[in-house]
Design brief:
Largest sheet: 5 strands, mixed
CATH topology: Glutaredoxin
Distance between the termini: 37 Å
Helix content: 25-40%
Number of strands: 9
Strand content: 15-25%
Number of helices: 6
Structural class: alpha/beta
CATH class: Alpha Beta
Shape: globular
Strand order of the largest sheet: 5-4-3-8-9
Radius of gyration: 16 Å
CATH architecture: 3-Layer(aba) Sandwich
Amino acid sequence: MLRRLAFACLLCGLSVSCAFANELRINQPAPDIVLNTLDGQHIALHDLRGKIVIITFWATWCDPCREELPLLSRYAHTHADDDLVILGFSLDTPDTLKEVRQLASRFHFATGLLGDPHVEGYGRIWRLPVSFVVDRQGRLVYDGWKDKAPAWTQQKLDELVTPMLRAQAQ
């Protein structure tokens, strides 16, 4: 089945990684991903064990993203001492780097350019915003692909992420 899906992706001109987005499983290890930040750092998901991680994909041209990003930034600031890490991957291109930097300078979380919308393990990033949440043990606990309303709201953060932040690392 997986081979047929990968072959179908190739026929459509998509990366084989499109097949793996369907393989994301809640409560299973999250696919590793590395954020190359705008200031030259490299933050790997596998190095963040013991923390709650929100992986979010956004773009400056995405209106719902521009509404969501300040909320995520405030949430990151509020929970800075609670082992919360937000990794923001911008789908913008290098020619809009100035605008990305200007917007990201207001964030209380790390951000960088994604570079390629095909992300191994997460698939092709085709809908924005889309986010994923990883628990302290490195397991995927929220898959934005499966959410009909994937943009973050304060209520969604309070219901999904805040209880994990309050729980002690095991």
